[in-house]
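Ticket #4471: structure export looks truncated?
Reporter: QA, pipeline team
Priority: medium

Steps to reproduce: submit the single chain below to the structure queue and open the exported record.
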Amino acid sequence: QLDLLWTRKQNVMYNLFDWPTQKHSKLIILAIANTMDLPERIMMNRVASRLVCLSRNLWPCAQYERQCVCYPFITEEMLFNVCDVYFQVAALSGDARRCLDICRRATEICEFASQKNTSGIVRMAHITEAIDEMFSSPYINAIRSSSLHEQIFLKAILAEFRRAGVEEATVQQVYHQHVALCRIEGMQSPTVSEIMAVCSRLGACRLLLVESSNKYLHMRVRLNISQDDVMYALKDE
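Actual output as written to the record:
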């Protein structure tokens, strides 16, 4: 269960994957994780560099291309393709459990609709409705109504978290990512004073947890919501 071996410095995972690379080593490491893109999502470069094989997405089913899920409280006709949900959710969340939660909610929506003499087949409309339900919150609405630079700042936080492999960063580190994103978009970069104001507003909305100190650029920030929710709120931006 690789998710449970994560530490801030990732020494445990580094040592684990380093053992097979030693001279004359006959050790093979097979790791399992709930997160479908765990190496890209949380692993530092020094840890990811120790992985010498490709990852595989495994499902508890003999079929690899098309798989169906049926729950005991619904009829046998309520079958649908998990891959439909996977492709919808993969860009938003790396957690396979959330994917299955959406499958469950989609079947519930379909079951309720079927009581009104409609089709009992779970369709993409049911899946989309389930996704909208599970990713809807006041925080997501706050992100969507925030200013352009506030949204870029949140994107910069996600970029810095992926780079460092730690879900905490200084304002200065996020600022560097923010400037890089502005350059990509051909936008003028904000000043330090403007970025501090952006950080303050996001903290006031409780989208960020901002360290209370006089360190300014060296203050540490964390997300007060999940990265999946931020990605979902900004998916169309």
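Status: closed, not a bug. The export was complete when the record was re-opened. Leaving a note from the reviewer for reference: The first helix runs from residue 11 to 18.
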